[in-house]
Amino acid sequence: MQISTRERNILFMAAFVAVVFAATTIFPTIRAQYQERQELIEDVLLDIDREQSLIENTLTWRERRVEVEQRTQELEQQVFSGDTIPLVEANISGDLSEYARNSGITVSSTRLADRLETNNWLMISQEMSFRTTDAGNTISLLERLENSLPRLFVSDFAINRSRNQYSGTITVVGFARSEGLVSAATAQR
After folding, report:
1. What 8-state DSSP symbol labels residue 134?
2. More confident site: 20 or 128
3. Which terminus of the chain, N or C, has less C-beta within 10 A?
């Protein structure tokens, strides 16, 4: 069986149309799938890089968390506590008097504590007048206050010498969380 020239031209034309059809429909589909696959590969590589950086940073974040927890515990130890505000004030006054006695200082008088409350924090200021025969005792008192737990911060200090005796005043500040504390008026009811 022989193919005529006309049939051969029709077959070539059909092959040409098939190639054009394949080029216009199949190749773009293959190209789109290839590009989609490349994008997926890039996404997976980005995810791998992100996971590796998270793994590398895990140790750093753990160390930071431990540091923050330790600092939080240290700060909690520096804060006074009590059921009522007058008890917290009494604790601050008592601690200040005890540090003075342990330093060889005689307490002349103490004023009523002043308080300031803001943002769930209570700042209590306590002033004390004192006497001593040795100026070194005041250094001892200041060192004890610096190392005190709960922490008492010195906000004002004055000392005068008259003959063989030193007299002065010191004002310290202590902090407490005011949340949950009962005020004196509520406690008396």
Report:
1. -
2. 128
3. N
β-pairing verdict for 121-132 and 153-162:
unpaired
pLDDT value at residue 145? 93
Residues 6+ apart with CB under 8 A from 16: none
Contact 102, 144 (CB under 8 A): yes
C-alpha count within 13 angstroms, C-beta hemisphere, residue 87: 11
- Residue 118's DSSP bridge partners are 121
Residue 186 has pLDDT above 50, yes or no: no
Q: What percent of the chain has pLDDT over 70?
A: 95
Buried b (16+ CB within 10 A) or exposed e, 98-115: ebbeebebeeeebeebeb
- Could you please report the per-residue DSSP string of 1-13? ----HHHHHHHHH
User: Which pLDDT does position 2 carry in this prediction?
Assistant: 82
Tell whether pTM > 0.70. Answer: no
* Spatial distance between the Cα atoms of 130 and 158, rounded to a whole number of angstroms: 10
Q: At what angle do helices 135-146 and 85-102 cross, to 10 degrees?
A: 140
User: At a CB cut-off of 8 Å and minimum separation 6, what does 96 contact?
Assistant: 110, 126, 128, 145, 152, 170, 172
CATH topology of domain 85-188: Alpha-Beta Plaits (3.30.70)
